[in-house]
Amino acid sequence: MSSSDMIRIENLVKRYQDLVALDHLTLSIQEGEIFGLLGPNGSGKTTAINCMLALLKYDKGSITVFGRNMQPDSYDIKKQIGVVMQNVAVFEQMSVQENIDYFCGLYIRDKAKRQSLVEEAIAFTGLTDYRKMRPKKLSGGLLRRLNIACGIVHKPRLIIMDEPTVAVDPQSRNKILEGIVELNRQGSTIIYTSHYMDEVEQICSRIAIIDHGRVLATGTTEELKQMIKTGETITIEAIELDDTLLAAVRGLPHVFDLTYEDRILKIRLSTARHNLVRILNFLKEHDISFGRVFSELPTLNDVFLEITGKELRD
Questions:
Q1: Alpha-carbon separation of residue 77 from 71, 129, 147, 158, 267 (angstroms)
Q2: Nearest-5° angle of CA 255, CA 258, CA 264?
Q3: Is the sign of the CA dihedral 227, 229, 232, 234 positive or negative?
Q4: Which phi and psi (to 5°) does residue 229 adopt?
Q5: Pair 52, 72: CB distance under 8 Å
Q6: Could you tell me if 252 and 279 are in contact, meaning their C-beta atoms sit under 8 angstroms apart?
Q7: How far apart are CA 173 and CA 179, in angstroms?
């Protein structure tokens, strides 16, 4: 185990009767990272998190957190972990402030220290004007922020965030993402799962792509992009092509995949100079008219699609 590994998961196997949820999953997360876990639904992300927290028994393998074996009764380890799950878990009969204070009280006994931490969490999540309100009066975005405040109020070393921005408005989403980066800057290591590729690309220092309970690839966004064939995607709108012309485009150098739907041509090409010039020259030679043309470098979405063969929202 590397000295900077905060979490080390080795050969983790978890079965539910005939279903293998985790298939010899191996993963290391280093101190100070915002580590993105990406995978389609049913890939094993949530099972891995529940095993990491010792909420689920697993069949084989080992998990160390902060260099120690994680067990269901490892309360001294668990005190240093904050969890923000996808389903909001707060008490409806308590105000915003009372909820945050309750969750802080699970970790911090000292009343003065707790009061100061609660104030800090309220200010940090932008809930100052809503402290006396009950959760059912809050908008979806504010409710998510309350959920986060309850999970981070005790200043944990490790924060696990499972889809914290699902179904929130763009303003709240940006506020949450800024908050996550700030928590990391203040010293927390963060494990982050999301269905929004742009979020993961924006805030994560390293990413693992998981499917069928296994890690398919790990690295920075740039490292992951180097692993795939796609070097560029060229999109051409309002273009009329017959099968013969489509076959000719498919035969051009460096083209390895294309789709043509609703008069929109999407061409995926491997990395090469002058790809766009080559395509435009072809269209000119064949006197093919077209609308807008744009070229994009590979995104995390391309990486995910090429490595797993699936769209993330499958």
A1: 9, 34, 21, 10, 50
A2: 125
A3: negative
A4: -75, -35
A5: no
A6: yes
A7: 10
Separation between Cα atoms, residue 305 and residue 284, nearest integer Å: 31
pTM of the full structure: 0.85
In angstroms, the CA 301 to CA 282 distance is 28
Q: What is the pLDDT of residues 44-93, one digit of tens each?
A: 999 999 999 999 999 999 999 999 999 999 999 999 999 998 888 899 99
pLDDT at position 147, please? 94
Q: Are 258 and 246 in contact (CB under 8 A)?
A: yes
pLDDT tens digits, one per residue of 206-244: 999 999 999 999 999 999 998 988 889 999 999 999 999
**Kind and range of the H or E element at 7?**
strand 5-16
**CA atoms of 3 and 162, how far apart (whole Å):** 26
Record the tokens describing residue 99, joined without a space. 């909820």
Return the sign of the alpha-carbon dihedral for residues 299, 300, 302, 303: positive
Q: pLDDT confidence of 41, banded at 50, 70, 90? A: confident
Q: For residue 292, what are its two tokens?
A: 């807008």
The dihedral region occupied by 155, where left means phi > 0, alpha psi between -120 and 50, and beta the remainder, is left
Domains of the chain: 5-225 (3.40.50.300), 229-297 (3.30.70.100)
